[in-house]
Amino acid sequence: MITLLADGREDTIEGLVLPYGTAVLGWERKPHGWCRGEACLPAFRAAAAETDEGVDLVAFAELLGRQAVADAGEGVVAVGEPAPAALDRAPEFGPLPGLRGTKVALVFWASWCGCRYDLPAWEALHRELGGHGFSVVSVSLDRDPGHAREWLEGLTHPAVVDADGRIAELYNVVNVPTVVWIDPDGRIARPQDTMTATDTFRSMNGLSSERATAALRRWVVEGESGADSRELRAPTAAERLARLHGRVAAWLLRAGRGEAAGRHLARAAELAPHDLAVRRGLMPLAGVDPFGEEYFRLREELQAAGIPIYRPLPDWQEGA
Predict the structure, then answer these.
(1) CB 3.0-4.6 Å disulfide test: which of 21, 145, 168, 207 passes with 173?
(2) Torsion of the alpha carbons at 57, 59, 61 and 62, rounded to the nearest 10
(3) pTM of this structure
(4) How many whole angstroms separate alpha carbon 70 and alpha carbon 48?
């Protein structure tokens, strides 16, 4: 038996080749092809994933534009999200559909980041600007929801924990703090930027929270985001694949299979060395202090390679 990690769920399948008559990622086989609702994959295209025994799950996922990472030896396969079709629209999850008609600051944070101390400031902005049709939605990248729980106490804005990394995948988030501005129509007003709400770690990140929050207030009240681009920065194929290796590694770590998880973490680091949401974000599950020597070695590695920790550098950087 194999655990399938896809669409925010864990399911059990008999193998990587699924017998005919079985729904595959929600798609069902019909005489003219494979269909999910009104969408259909023609039979002549689906044939590339079909065998005498059944449907090759990994090959079928690729036909749908979804990458997959399979570790048959460890009994797990992860299937990613499709490549984003519209970068100007905010991918929906959790509370977002219910906030249509409201401006949203989507705030990515984690308990393993000093940005956890910014949550009360984000809550204050949520309350201050709520009368202008504005809401904060915070997304914790903690792989263990319990690590985020204490930091969420007393908050009134919508908050979710992205334990499987799916939301970070949808928004191409490689580090925290990252903030995305979403307009009332569900379109991107400002893409993934490093943004702080306090100056607690200004000496490390060189960012002015005063400039950033002033820009946010102007957007909420006056409607001008000041952004050069209003599309999400698209992930590369390597970044997407790295996140799937990270998802498999997280599953293996929870199962106590550290050696196998290490192989997937190493592959993720090769594919996307800059993705701290994976490389640092999985340290707590591995029993590694995300504020300790391992993290500072990682910082030195990235700095030596010329890879910025906070990127892209927004217009509220000091000296901008």
Answers:
(1) 168
(2) 170
(3) 0.93
(4) 18
Residue pLDDT, tens place only, 206-216: 889 999 999 99
CB 162 within 8 A of CB 173: no
Alpha carbon distance 220, 102 (integer Å): 10
Judge: domain 96-222, CATH 3.40.30.10: yes
The single residue listed with the structure tokens 């008609």 is 101
Q: Which two tokens stand for residue 17?
A: 């080749």
Q: At what angle do helices 119-129 and 209-222 cross, to 10 degrees?
A: 20
Domain boundaries, the chain: 2-79, 96-222, 237-304
